[in-house]
Structure formats: structure tokens, C-alpha cells
Amino acid sequence: MSNISAPDWEVLRTKGADWDIFDGVFTSAAAGERKPNLGYYRHVLKVTGADPKRTIFVDDKLENLVTARSLGITTILYDTFENVERALRNLCSNPISRAKQFLINNAGRHLSYTSTGQVIRENFAQLLILESTRNPSLVEYITYDGAFNFFQGHGELTTHEFPSDLDTTSIGLTIAPNIDASTKSRVMDSMLQYRNADNVLQVYFDDRRPRLDPVVCVNILTLFYSNGRGHELDDTLDWVYSVLENRAYLEGTRYYEGAETFLFFMTRLLAASPSVRRQFGALFKERVAERIGTTGDALALAMRVHCSNEVGLDAAVDVERLLALQQIDGGWNDGWFYKYGSADIKIANRGLTTAIAIEALQRSAGKPVALSEGY
């Protein structure tokens, strides 16, 4: 569908292009109309019998797209070939199937990386991918007979001998399979020794690192409530409620980026404890509703849709934005998730972003979350 004169078209069609890929070529000369006139679009729709609602129009001029949109046609602005290819794939193929294939294609290689470009081998993201997919073949992590360490080996971009932390340990003990109740109980007993002067649990199994983070507290609470011991952490729970009530999480925390990470981990806590859900539920729903439609990268959008699903909110605007960010390979790009507390270095993991996006999109579509299907 081109604005071109009859003589120019006669010359162009002799050039070395693969014209056979087109079922039809429409010229303004033959139609007696030019883009962006409505008549030209109506002419093409009539001749082809195409349904505007199932038609995609690609053009490099915005005015031409506006007319197409006014007829109900989906449009793509041509800027680069790569962007157009990505947009067409996202419109014409199943996003869930493509995303699952991305995870399969990269099984065992869903490694985290920093904003400085360094790949790091850590346990935290691997465990969360496992939780979202229920497929251990996709990830590699270390199981411990006790406290978990964030790193799979020595510390990277930090002290060589890095202490185990209550955060990764809580995630590990709630997600990793085949950890017996006695081990969990023993580790939780040890955790209780690392409370500050306010009786709130800290981050590390190391009194020389007195760090505090509300997301870490949420994950610890999830572990304790999952094992019938939440009542031992009332002061920590009260502080987390204050963080939620006063929106103290909006700009992220010491170790976590953005508002959505706090809310995302809160859904795990609410799922683990009916009593916490009763206490926090109404306020939590309000806070999630406040985030719908705000800015965010792919991970923030996936987490936001996940949270909205959990409390029955319609986040269609964020679902649409998330779908548009899917890449050609089926995965989603950077979502800065956590960070080194003492340095401005952020950490991301495409596998994690993609796994959370799959679960969120399945739930938002009202489909059963058959997480093992297709892996």
C-alpha cells in the first residue's frame, strides 16, 4: 500500500525485490487515492476482505497510522527493522509459549548480571525462578544444611568471605524441596538471635553487619508463618505494616529496587498467613491499586500484574505494556531487582523477569496456572 505514481511503480517492480511474498500490491495510482486519505484504506479493506480488527498496518509516517487507527486497524510505526519484527512477533504469536521456550532454551544459564556488566552466580534468583515455574531443570542453586548464602561461591564485588543472610535463607527454606522440618526449626532458632534494639530481625548472620531492610523482613516473616512460628516476630510484623501504611517502600529499600519488589514479596506473606491477610489485606489492595498505570520496567510491570491478580484488581493497562516489552527471543529484558547495599551496583536476571511475567500473564488471562506445562 504505497503512495506511488503509475510510471514509478512500473520501474520499481522491475527491481530485484522478492515481490512474490506479497499477495497483493496497492498503489495510490491504481486506487485513485493517497495515504492518509480514508478512501485509500477503505479501498484496500474492501478488495482484500480484511477485518480491520484483525489487520496490522506498518508505516513510517504517523499521519498515515492515525487514519488506520481510526478504522480500528492495529498499527506499528516503522523506525528500525528490529523494533518492527519484535512488535509483529508480539502481536501475532502466543506470548506465553514464546516465553516458556525462552526459559527452556536457556535452562541452567539464567544467570544474574550487574549494572557494571559482570555475571554473578547466586542462589536467590534461581530459587525464585524455581518457585514460579516448578521446574528444577531450568535452574542451578546450592542447597545447604542450614543457612543459605546469596552467592554460590565466594562473594563477588564484595568481601571474599561473604556471610550467609536471613533473606536468601528464608527464600531457600520456603522454596527448595526436601528440607526437613527439624532443619528449618534449627535455622529459625538461629535467626532469632539477630534482632536489633527494636526487636526487628536484621539481614545477616553476622553481628558486625547490622543491616535492616523491610523486604528481607517480609521474607523472614513468610518463612516463620509458613512454619507456624509467625507469632514470634510481632515487632518485625508491626514494622512491616508501618512500611506499607506509610509507603516507605516507594523508592526501593537498601537492597531492593523500586516499589514493586516490596509488594511482590508481600503477596507471598499474605498467602502464607490468613491472619496477616486479614490484618494487611485491605491496605495492601489500596497500595497495589496506587501503582497501576505508573512507570516501570518489565520486572516492575510483571510484579505489579502479579500483585493485582492476587487482590482481584484489573491491571489491563500494565498487561498491555508488559506484552509490548517482550523481546524477539521470547524473554523480557532488564528488570533491576536488587542491589549491593554499599555501592550503586544493581542486579538483574532475565530468567527471573520472564518467569514472573509468565505467571502474571497466565493469571491475568484467567487461565489456570499450569506452571509445568510447556517446560
Automatic annotation (TrEMBL):
Domain of life: Eukaryota
SUPFAM superfamilies in UniProt: HAD-like
GO molecular function, one term: phosphatase activity
InterPro entries per record: HAD-like_sf, HAD-SF_hydro_IA, HAD_sf
The protein's name in its UniProt record: Predicted protein
Organism name: Laccaria bicolor (strain S238N-H82 / ATCC MYA-4686)
Lineage of producing organism: Eukaryota, Fungi, Dikarya, Basidiomycota, Agaricomycotina
